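Exercise 7. Given the encoded structure of a 428-residue chain, write a plausible sequence.
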C-alpha cells in the first residue's frame, strides 16, 4: 500500500470559478468575448470549472475595482449561491484593485497573469523552466507585497497558489529578494550547462528550424508529423512548455533540426516574456521560423498579430519566416481565404498536420530557404578586428582557420546577407 495514493487524491476536485471582463467600447465587445473565452480555456487548463462569464461595458477601468462596484456585488451574490471559490479577471489587476476586490468578494480573485503563471508552474518540467517560473512568480508578487508580508497568504489554496514558489510565497519581502538573488545564480549555472550542451551541438552544422505560433495552433502535432515522434499534442493550452528538438532529413538529404516551442498568447504577462526568453532561446538561435497558424480559428488575425509582436519582442523579426496555414482539413474548400492569406503574408503553405496534407510542399520550402540562407566563404581579416572575428565565430560555422602575419584566414559558412557584407575581406 502506498501511503499517499488514495484514489480521491488523484483527481483533485475542480475549483468552481466565474470569469469577468470589461470592454471600453461597443465595437470591442466581440473581441472581449473571445478573450474571455480564452481565459476560460486557460482556467480549464489550470483545473477550474468556469460556471459563468460576466462582461461589462465600461469606458475606463475602475482604479479601485477594475469593473463597476455594483457588478462585483452581483458576482458576489452569484458566488455565494453557487459555492464559487474563485473569480477570474481578464486583465492584469493592480495590487490595490486585487486587495479591494478580494475584500469585497470575500473569496480568491486571480488575474490573467496569475492564471498563466499557475499553468506554467504546473507544467514546467526542466530545472531551468521551474527556476524561471518561480522567478516570474516572485517578480509578480514583490511589487504586490504590502505591510508585513501578510498579503501573500492568499485565501485558500489551489489555483494561483501552486508551483515551485508555493511555500516560499509566505516569506516576507526581504527574504523574497534574497530568494530572487539565489534563483538568478542558480539560473546562471543551469544556463551555463545548457550553453555547453549547445556549443557541443553546434559542432554539427545543422540549421535550426523553430516552430512558433499561437498556443493550440498545432505546432506539436506538426512537430510529431515531421519527426515521427509522439509528443504531447493536446487541446490544453501550453501543453508544451519545455522546448523539444529533433532532426529530420529533407528531400535533398539535408539534415535539419526542428524545435517545438511554447505557444504564444495574447496579453502574455510581461514577467513571463522576460522569464521565458531563455526557454525560447531555440527561437533566437533558429535560422528559419515556421509560424504555425490555425486558420480555422475565428480569432486568427489577432493570433497572428500576437505572435508577430512576440517575435519582435524576442528580436528575431529579421529571420526568414514561412507562414504555415494549418488545419485546412477543417475549412470548406474555400481557396479565396487561402489566397487572401497569401496576399497578406507572403511565403505561405497550407497544410493539415492532422492528415498530412501539404507536408511535402512545406518540407521542400524549408529545404529551399535553408540552402539559400547559407553561403560558404573564405575571408582574411586583420586580427585587430576582434569583435568581427568573434561575431563570425558566433553566427557562422567555421570549417577552418589559419593565422598569418596579423591576419586570420577563415573558411566559414555564414548567413548569405552577412557574407555579402564581408565580400571585401574575401580571398582573391
Ligand atoms: P500547439 O499548442 O500549437 O502545440 O497545438 P497542438 O499540436 O497541441 O494541437 C492543438 C489541437 O489542435 C490538438 O487537439 C490537435 O489534435 C489539433 N490539431 C492540430 N493540427 C490539426 C489539423 O491539421 N487539423 C485538425 N483538425 N486539428 C488539428
Ligand atoms: Mg505544443
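Solution.
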Amino acid at each position: 500500500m502506498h501511503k499517499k495514493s488514495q484514489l480521491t487524491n488523484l483527481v483533485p476536485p475542480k475549483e468552481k470559478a466565474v470569469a469577468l471582463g470589461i470592454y471600453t467600447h461597443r465595437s470591442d465587445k466581440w473581441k472581449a468575448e473571445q478573450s474571455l473565452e480564452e481565459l476560460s480555456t486557460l482556467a480549464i487548463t489550470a483545473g477550474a470549472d468556469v460556471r459563468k462569464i460576466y462582461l461589462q461595458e465600461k469606458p475606463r477601468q475602475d482604479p479601485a475595482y477594475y469593473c463597476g462596484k455594483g457588478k462585483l456585488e452581483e458576482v458576489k451574490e452569484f458566488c455565494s449561491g453557487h459555492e464559487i471559490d474563485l473569480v477570474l479577471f481578464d486583465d492584469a489587476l493592480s495590487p490595490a484593485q486585487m486587495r479591494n476586490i478580494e475584500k469585497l468578494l470575500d473569496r480568491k480573485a486571480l488575474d490573467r497573469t496569475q492564471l498563466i503563471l499557475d499553468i506554467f508552474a504546473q507544467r514546467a518540467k526542466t530545472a531551468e523552466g521551474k527556476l524561471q517560473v518561480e522567478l516570474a512568480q516572485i517578480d509578480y508578487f514583490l511589487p504586490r507585497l504590502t505591510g508585513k508580508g501578510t498579503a501573500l497568504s492568499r485565501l485558500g489554496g489551489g489555483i494561483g497558489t501552486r508551483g515551485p514558489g508555493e511555500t516560499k510565497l509566505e516569506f516576507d519581502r526581504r527574504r523574497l529578494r534574497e530568494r530572487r538573488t539565489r534563483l538568478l545564480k542558480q539560473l546562471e549555472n543551469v544556463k551555463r550547462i545548457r550553453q555547453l550542451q549547445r556549443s557541443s551541438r553546434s559542432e554539427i552544422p545543422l540549421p535550426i528550424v523553430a516552430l512558433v505560433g499561437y498556443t493550440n495552433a498545432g505546432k506539436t502535432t506538426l512537430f510529431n508529423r515531421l519527426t515521427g515522434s509522439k509528443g504531447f499534442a493536446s487541446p490544453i493550452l501550453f501543453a508544451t512548455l519545455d522546448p523539444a528538438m529533433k532532426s529530420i532529413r529533407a528531400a535533398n538529404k539535408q539534415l535539419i533540426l526542428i524545435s517545438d516551442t511554447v505557444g504564444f498568447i495574447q496579453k502574455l504577462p510581461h514577467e513571463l516574456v522576460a522569464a521565458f526568453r531563455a526557454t525560447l532561446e531555440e527561437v533566437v538561435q533558429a535560422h528559419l521560423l515556421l509560424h504555425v497558424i490555425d486558420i480555422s480559428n475565428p480569432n486568427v488575425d489577432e493570433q497572428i498579430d500576437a505572435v508577430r509582436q512576440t517575435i519582435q519582442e524576442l528580436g528575431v523579426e529579421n529571420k526568414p519566416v514561412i507562414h504555415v496555414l494549418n488545419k485546412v482539413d477543417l475549412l470548406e474548400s474555400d481557396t479565396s481565404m487561402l489566397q487572401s492569406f497569401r496576399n497578406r503574408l507572403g511565403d505561405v503553405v497550407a497544410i493539415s498536420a492532422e492528415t498530412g496534407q501539404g507536408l511535402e510542399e512545406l518540407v521542400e520550402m524549408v529545404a529551399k530557404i535553408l540552402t539559400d540562407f547559407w553561403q560558404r566563404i573564405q575571408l582574411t581579416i586583420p586580427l585587430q578586428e576582434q569583435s568581427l572575428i568573434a561575431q563570425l565565430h558566433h553566427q557562422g560555422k567555421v570549417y577552418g582557420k589559419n593565422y598569418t602575419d596579423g591576419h586570420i584566414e577563415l573558411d566559414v559558412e555564414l548567413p548569405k546577407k552577412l557574407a555579402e557584407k564581408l565580400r571585401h575581406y574575401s580571398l582573391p
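Remark. The chain is about 40% helix and 20% strand. Students should compare their own answers with the one above.
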